[in-house]
Design a protein that fits this description.
It is a single chain. By secondary structure, the chain is mainly α. Helices cover 80% and strands 0% of the residues. It contains 18 helices and no strands. The protein is globular, with a radius of gyration of 20 Å.
């Protein structure tokens, strides 16, 4: 840990990401609640969730750009644009012109910009830390980020109750500009970008580079793992759309802040624990993790009261936090570095592609029936994952992350 914290580029990357995470927490809570506040309908909350997540389905298109462009310029440009976009919401509110249509117009542009920044963070980490420190660095990143999310998710509920949802967006804009200043000080990107540019010039073109990333993953266990996550992310997106109405029914904006903070706290605990379970077999972890999450999600709506509901959500989200760290570390340590930006963006697109669809469906179901129906559905999807992994000998027997290699995961540039 001490060695990592002496690394100037890592510290800049780390603090820049934390600043963005703080704003993202306020933004994500503010968007969903503001959509509900402006319309009183879970259907529009579902639409807002769809527009927030839909651009992640095409994140793979940005992979070649991350592999060939100067990472520092990507960070500075994306943070600046996102800061300006977020400011539109409070400005419109001051001018008494804010409507659901302005909100729905800003969301997809902001999310689209973020699709270039996210794979850049993931692709750059192996360049600033050694392979021996990669899991520890990922755990530190995820732990701190989830800790920030837990604090600011809870704080957002309080701020909404005290000063209103639009105030969150002003704070969010400031965090983007702070991150821009921090990330502009990175020193590693020039040399790395020259190498990336040379590789890109030698390639047959942009779409050939995208195809190369898909070819590398074709038939691999990485795609199977991504498919499992995609399946359950549909239900997760539905729950995100149902959560504001469900929280409102048991306590209002304060309850919404508590539940979203609890979700982030569970992920924080899981991310923190990931570095301590590095010796656990990955396949066994998938089985136990998905089973724990399935039980927790169902108990969240079965048990009465905000306290028991929050406790169940906490249990359900712990495995998700650990899963994120271990899976990211697995790919960063095994995948060919020249393809890392493309692979990370392709798999992230696969993970997230069904979340926006789930948000639309979840918003509709919650409006027509009841929010708790979506919780039952998500628990059922996680349970099906347990059955699939249990019946898949290869996935079930995957060793610990540090013992994996490209051949074991069926990754090859010859595919």
């Amino acid at each position: 840990m001490r060695e990592i914290l002496k690394n100037r580029d890592f510290v800049l990357l780390f603090t820049g990401r934390l600043s963005t995470n703080a704003g993202d927490s306020l933004y994500s809570i503010g968007v969903m609640w503001l959509a509900f506040q402006l319309t009183g309908s879970s259907l529009f909350v579902g639409v807002a969730g769809f527009l927030t997540r839909a651009p992640t389905a095409i994140q793979f298109l940005f992979g070649p750009l991350v592999d060939r462009w100067d990472i520092r310029r990507i960070f500075v440009g994306t943070q600046f644009v996102q800061g300006l976009l977020v400011l539109i919401i409070p400005i419109a509110a001051v001018l008494d012109a804010l409507s659901i249509w302005i909100l729905l117009g800003v969301i997809p542009v902001l999310s689209l910009t973020n699709q270039l920044a996210m794979p850049a963070y993931q692709a750059v980490l192996p360049r600033v830390v050694t392979s021996e420190n990669l899991t520890e660095a990922n755990s530190l990143f995820s732990t701190a980020a989830q800790g920030i999310n837990a604090v600011f998710n809870g704080l957002s509920g309080l701020l909404i109750a005290v000063v209103g949802a639009t105030a969150l967006f002003t704070i969010d804009a400031v965090t983007f500009f702070i991150a821009m200043i921090l990330l502009s000080q990175l020193s590693f990107s020039a040399a790395d970008s020259e190498d990336s540019a040379g590789n890109s010039d030698a390639a047959s073109g942009y779409f050939s580079e995208i195809r190369e990333g898909f070819d590398y993953l074709r038939g691999s266990l990485v795609l199977q793992i991504a498919a499992i996550a995609t399946f359950t992310n549909f239900g997760y997106g539905a729950v995100l759309a149902a959560l504001p109405e469900y929280a409102n029914s048991i306590g209002g904006p304060e309850a919404y802040g508590v539940l979203t903070a609890t979700l982030a706290t569970g992920s924080f605990v899981g991310a923190l624990g990931a570095s301590f379970i590095g010796d656990v077999q990955y396949g066994r972890f998938l089985l136990v993790g998905y089973l724990t999450t399935a039980v927790g999600v169902i108990l969240a709506v079965v048990l009465p009261g905000i306290v028991l509901t929050a406790a169940a959500i906490l249990v359900a989200s712990v495995a998700l936090g650990a899963y994120s760290v271990l899976t990211r570390s697995m790919m960063q340590s095994v995948v060919d570095n020249s393809l890392l930006g493309r692979v990370m963006s392709i798999t992230q697109s696969a993970y997230d592609v069904m979340v926006p669809v789930g948000s639309l469906v979840g918003g509709f179901v919650s409006a027509q029936f009841a929010p708790r129906v979506t919780f039952y559905a998500l628990g059922g999807l996680y349970a099906l994952n347990v059955l699939y992994i249990a019946g898949h000998g290869t996935l079930r027997s995957l060793p610990k992350v540090g013992d994996m290699d490209q051949e074991m995961l069926r990754l090859s540039t010859k595919n």
